[in-house]
Amino acid sequence: MCTPSLEERARVSDEMYARNPERFGVLNSAFSGWWTQFVPHTSRLLELCCGTGRDIQFYLKLGFSVTGVDYSPTAVAKAKSRVRTIGKAEIVELEVTRFLEQTEPESYDAVCANLVYGGFTLKELKAVFALVHRALKPFGVHAYCVRSIRDSHCLAGEKLGRYTRLYNHEAGGFLETYFTPKLCGGLSRGLFETIKIEEDLRNFTI
Fold first, then answer.
1. What's the pTM value of the predicted model, to 2 decimals?
2. Rounded distance, CA 196 to CA 150, Å?
3. Which of 104, 113, 154, 165 allows an S-S link to 144, with CB 3.0 to 4.6 Å?
4. Whole-angstrom Cα distance, residue 184 to residue 177?
């Protein structure tokens, strides 16, 4: 049993968007409304895996300066079209790890990721968290939403690791890593100080 490559994950993601461009809807996520209480709305913000831009719309209206990155050409095209009349946002088609590797240190006041980190293995996440830390200015905020191990889907799929499962979709295979507060703390150790962890099983798909 093999972990899908980043290239394969990108292909599957783009196929999902191509089949259903509005799969996440048009309203901003519950997560976007929650985490923005922790930063000034004039901040320079990076959204990882921004998808079709539903949250970028919200961030722009709040006053953020936004850069969004996603590896799905279909999603990026939709996002650019969606935010064109709202405000100025830079939207880049690139895998997030590659983008972070190319980002100058201390470039952003905040980095957010909504249901993004589940698509990485724990080994990959350690590198991603370090890159996010490098991209943030001192006292910057790293906000993210992930699926809990109490998610009902956690026990489904093929086991790739203690917290990671492989699922089959009509577009291809994709992985999902599930989280505990302890795991979040372990990934953040030496990089980030936890401000708040909130669990909402009712809205785990938002």
1. 0.92
2. 19
3. 113
4. 12
